[in-house]
Amino acid sequence: FMHFSAGYAVVGSMVDTGMLTFGQALVTLILGSMIIITMIYLKYLVPLYLALFGKDGVRVAVIAYAASMTAKVACIGIVMLIFF
User: Fold this and answer.
1) Fewest Cβ atoms closer than 10 Å to its Cβ: which of 17, 23, 50, 72?
2) pTM above the 0.85 mark?
3) Which pLDDT tens digits describe the chain residue by residue (84 residues)?
4) R_g of the chain, CA atoms, integer Å
């Protein structure tokens, strides 16, 4: 739950030392970004969409969040196919 750049640095050093493979590092970073996106939606985007769209803002936020998570899951699947 630190800044995302700290995660990049830690994963990068783990790849350099051989603790993680490149594919494992990609999956780790994508999973981490899924957590960050969830936090961003809850903290910023749901209130924004509620302010912009009223009660429909929740529906807009859920649809946007679902699309974002679907894209991340697809990315993980592609990485798994390529590297594992």
Assistant:
1) 17
2) no
3) 567 788 888 999 999 999 999 999 988 888 888 888 898 889 999 999 999 999 999 999 999 999 999 999 998 889 889 988
4) 16
Contact 55, 67 (CB under 8 A): no
Task: Give CA separation, 84 vs 26, 46, 64, in Å.
Answer: 12, 36, 30
Question: Of the candidates 26, 46, 38, 25, which has an alpha carbon nearest to the alpha carbon of residue 68?
Answer: 38
Q: What is the DSSP letter of 18?
A: T
Token readout for 32 is 């981490």
**Residues listed for the chain:** 84
Take residue 56 and report the two structure tokens written for it: 């429909």
